[in-house]
Write a structure and sequence with these properties.
Distance between the termini: 36 Å
Subcellular location: Cell membrane
Helix content: over 70%
Pfam families: MarC
Structural class: mainly alpha
Strand content: under 5%
Order of helices and strands: HHHHHHHHH
Number of strands: 0
Membrane topology: Multi-pass membrane protein
Largest sheet: none
Number of domains: 1
Main location: membrane
Protein name: UPF0056 membrane protein
Shape: globular
Amino acid sequence: MNELLAIFIFFFAVIDPIGTVPVFIATTRGDCEQFKRKVAYKAVAVSAVVLLFFVLAGELLLNAIKIPLSAFQIAGGIVLLLFALSMIFGESKPETEIKSVRDSTATAIFPLAIPSIASPGAMLGAVLMTRNNEYTWVEQSITSAVMLAVLAVVLVLLLLATHVHKLIGDSGASIISRIMGLILTSVAVTNILDGIAHYFGLQVFS
């Protein structure tokens, strides 16, 4: 149970459902409710396909280009760490991605589905949390189900976006995004340390 909760918190941090709400509102500002619902369903569906692709094929791609998983884990941990630090010290996720809406004629897929929901951190996390040499296909399936559960939370929040935004406001979303960044920092450091330990462990026994 604790492991499932840890996985849920991890994906909640990297996907950041609450931080996506202001992005969704900016993307669909002025549109009718029916159109907003279509955008919400489409964005979450695209995000699910992208993240499941990384679960199924991410490690295979690494093996094809002969990159050891430990090296990817270290690199992924560093990227996650930088991503998390940007959430804490830089502009929060909503502020950054809302700007991309104002500065371009982006569709609902960008920046909503990618990179707001299926963020680079979420893609890396999907690979790192389903490593073939550490987890059975049953455990990977459970992890994927938890990830989809977080995406379901995203969908509910997007469908209730107007009410959620009125409740927490832009500042509330910014605060929550920074808290998620702090949690993600500890996860990133853990991945880096595990990757280093795994790499040198392989070196010792090879």
